[in-house]
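Backbones bend. Our protein:
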Amino acid sequence: MKTIFKYLLRAYLKYITKLVLLIHQPTIIAISGSINKPFVKLAIKKALVDKGLRVRANPKNFNTEIGLPLAILALPSGYNSFTDWLPIIFAAPKRIFTRNFPEFLVLGLGTSDPGDMKYLLSVVRPNITIITDITQRYLESFSDMNELVGEYEYLISRMPKNGLLVTNNDNTRLVDLKRSAKCRVLTFAIDNPAAYQAKNISATATGQKFNLEHKGKQELISINRFGKHHVSAFLIGRIIKDYVII
């Protein structure tokens, strides 16, 4: 019974979500990759909010076949309770008539099993896609790295020609994958040349400072967080901030 309910719920939420996206036409920014998605999502959201834009980002675990539609519709999860799902089911169609729907949706896409990406992209088609990295961190459900990489190959293949792909130039797999993209590509990196590269990273009393190199110019940046993953998140946020023009 639970399996049937989950299948029906998934189909119902997908239908409502696609209708909502069709009506409101938000710009969809998808974040995928093995690591650093939460920090990248926060950096992008901040960059867009700072520009005065209406933004919604999905909560940490709302990146699956059911969680993603709930995030887009701004609805909670009923988890394993049928009675808790009932008010959510009735509330979903009302989202069609939402006023001031977000101009941007910043959505993490989860890929824990083969085929996950294909289903998620049947719900949303990103205008901008970020792939943070590809590692063996979530390889358990995949037969090998090639099968995992195939999820990201499919993601890139679904990008519209007028879209933007942002990838990590420090990851050799992404260096190879980006060549298949038919849309614009912007890269970020710490160790290798990229469109946006962080150089001379050093610790400060409150975080880190580094030189941001872009288009042959360098800018001194300070952030109040520690760790290279936060530097990468900043670079991605800066790319989105520069790319989005009001």
Notes: The chain has one domain: 26-58+102-243. The mean pLDDT is 93. The CA atoms of residues 168 and 188 lie 5 Å apart.
